[in-house]
Design a protein that fits this description.
Elements (H helix, E strand, L loop, with lengths): L3 E7 L3 E7 L5 E8 L11 E2 L1 H19 L6 E8 L5 E4 L9 E2 L7 H8 L7 H4 L8 H11 L3 H6 L3 E4 L1 H9 L9 E3 H4 L5 E2 L4 E2 L1 H7 L8 E3 L2 E6 L9 E7 H8 L8 E5 L3 E8 L10 E6 L7 E8 L3 H11 L7 H6 L9 E3 L17 E3 L7 H27 L6 E4 L6 H11 L3 E4 L4 H13 L6 H7 L2 E5 L5 H18 L10
Parallel strand pairs: 1-5, 5-14, 9-12, 15-21, 21-22
Antiparallel strand pairs: 1-2, 2-3, 4-7, 6-8, 10-11, 13-14, 15-16, 16-18, 17-18, 19-20, 22-23
Length: 503
């Protein structure tokens, strides 16, 4: 009998394969980073070929580390960086261009033209504001800027997919009969899917100039969706697909209305379930699909998407060189008593929720001769907590109720200084689960449910265990003062991009 479920977690900075056992515990992991490509200011790309090669390598590593083979695995789940657009040749599997990453800002002029002053133009249909964050304008850019791509797409020669789709297609055979599929959560982030029908909308395809022939079939998040064709997993069902933030929510066992989580990764993403009801936001949040199990009705959520959190710490390491590893950020921040009056708004790709201001750019304010690199590091960590507070305020305004605690996951939750400051700034406990790899776990859960490895949602709830809790200790007056200064800093980041400025 199979002992494990394997999850493939194709993230913004790396690809991982993780084996989980029946208790939801991590057994082994393979991980490889991939290159971050920045051709111009505001442009962010990845190599799809590198991602696929890394996927194959990390599967081998995860199995080897556990001393396992495909016979020990019940099913495969896939989770991925959402919105990132890949276009490839149907007959060869060759990408026609690099993957355009969700952080990329090159299509803002197209967004402005289509919005014509109304960024909420398609929100009633898609749940999304018009923004270059989503896949639609990225697909259009590739078709319009790669020679011959539009004509080839219209002839049905090219395929589009987010990374889940790319990996599933390759795993299931690629040019030799690969299944061209994406799940409802990823499809809901393209700005091409109707939230209610859970299908591609022809009026949106016409607006963005995307041929229907290049789009994948939309499937549920949990079900036997395809079969691995070759390699160590040959013959196994691909039985779970979820966008990374929905997967993390699933891994946190936050299945019901009002249940939430916040993931601290490259960016931060807060998701709060709204059940079978689509709740529109009046406060800068996104309405999205949370998950769909088999033929059951889809479950929906409100989401607050923050573009830059963990990637800001990488920026301190790679661009400024003031730390040599991400873990050093906490040590450097701990070398000072407070932020020294320094506030860092990391609007590298504009500001996402709740502002949706593509004209914003990063600013560091409050600098004096007293400030040093410790204050910069502390301000960078605190920026994550401040942005999370903004999104939580929007959630509470939309739902009319206050969160009493916040479940957290992701790599940055290892940072004790950040987690304590987050609790202080929110005024509620912050709780980290025993299994921090909730994104991969959620994909594993979706796959395992589909093949009977786990019986039902109650069994998954029983697996959840608390590992660490941070209680707030900041006085309300101090919290209010810091939020006031943060809001001043945000105001300084706005209206930076002019028509003649680089993206």
């Amino acid at each position: 009998m199979a002992e494990y479920v394997l999850a493939i977690d194709q993230g913004t900075t790396s690809t991982r394969a993780i084996l989980f056992d029946h208790s939801g515990s991590l057994v082994s992991v393979g991980q490889q980073e991939h290159e971050q490509i920045f051709p111009k200011a505001g442009w962010v790309e990845h190599s799809p070929a590198e991602i696929w090669a890394n996927t194959q390598a990390v599967i081998e590593t995860a199995l080897s580390e556990a001393g396992a083979t495909g016979a020990d695995v019940a099913a495969v789940g896939i989770t991925n960086q959402r919105e990132t657009a890949i276009v490839w040749d149907r007959s060869t599997g060759e990408p026609v261009y690099n993957a355009i990453v969700w952080q990329d800002t090159r299509t803002q002029s197209m967004v402005d033209r289509i919005a014509d002053g109304d960024v909420q133009r398609f929100a009633p249909l898609t749940g999304l504001p018009l923004a270059g964050y989503f896949s639609a304008t990225k697909i259009a850019w590739i078709l319009d800027n790669v020679e011959g791509a539009r004509e080839r797409a219209e002839r049905g020669e090219l395929l589009f997919g987010t990374p889940d789709c790319w990996i599933a297609w390759n795993l299931s055979g690629g040019p030799d009969g690969g299944e061209h599929i994406t799940d409802v959560t990823n499809a809901s982030r393209t700005m091409l899917m109707d939230l209610r029908s859970l299908d591609w909308d022809e009026s949106l395809l016409e607006v963005f100039g995307v041929p229907m022939a290049m789009l994948p079939r939309i499937v549920s998040s949990s079900g036997v969706l395809a079969t691995v064709k070759d390699g160590p997993l040959a013959g196994l069902p691909i039985a779970g697909m979820l966008g990374d933030q929905q997967a993390a929510t699933f891994g946190q066992a936050a299945f019901e209305r009002g249940e939430s989580k916040n993931t601290y990764g490259t960016g931060n993403f807060l998701i709060v379930g709204t059940g079978e009801e689509i709740v529109g936001s009046g406060n800068g949040l996104i309405s999205t699909v949370a998950y769909r199990l088999g033929d059951a009705p889809a479950r929906y959520a409100l989401e607050g998407s923050i573009a830059v959190t963990g990637s800001l710490i990488q920026w301190l390491r790679d661009n400024l060189g003031i730390i040599s590893s991400s873990a050093e950020a906490e040590t450097l921040a701990g070398s000072v008593e407070d932020n020294g009056g320094v506030y860092f708004v990391p609007a590298f790709s504009g500001l996402f929720a709740p502002h949706w201001r593509p004209d914003a750019r990063g600013v560091i304010v409050g600098l004096t001769r007293f400030a040093n690199k410790g204050h910069i590091a502390r301000a960078a960590l605190e920026a994550t907590a401040f942005q999370t507070r903004e999104v939580l305020d929007a959630v509470e305004a939309d739902l009319g109720s206050r969160l009493t605690e916040l479940k957290v996951d992701g790599g940055m939750t290892a940072n004790e200084t950040l987690m304590q400051f987050q609790a202080d700034l929110l005024g509620v406990p912050v709780i980290r689960p025993a299994v921090a790899e909730t994104t991969a776990l959620g994909a594993a859960y979706a796959a395992g449910l589909a093949v009977g490895f786990w019986a039902d949602l109650d069994e998954l709830r029983a697996n959840w265990r608390e590992e660490r809790r941070w209680e707030p200790s900041m006085e309300e007056a101090e919290r209010t003062r810091r939020l006031r200064l943060w809001n001043k800093a945000v105001s300084r980041s706005l209206d930076w991009i002019d028509d003649d400025a680089p993206a």
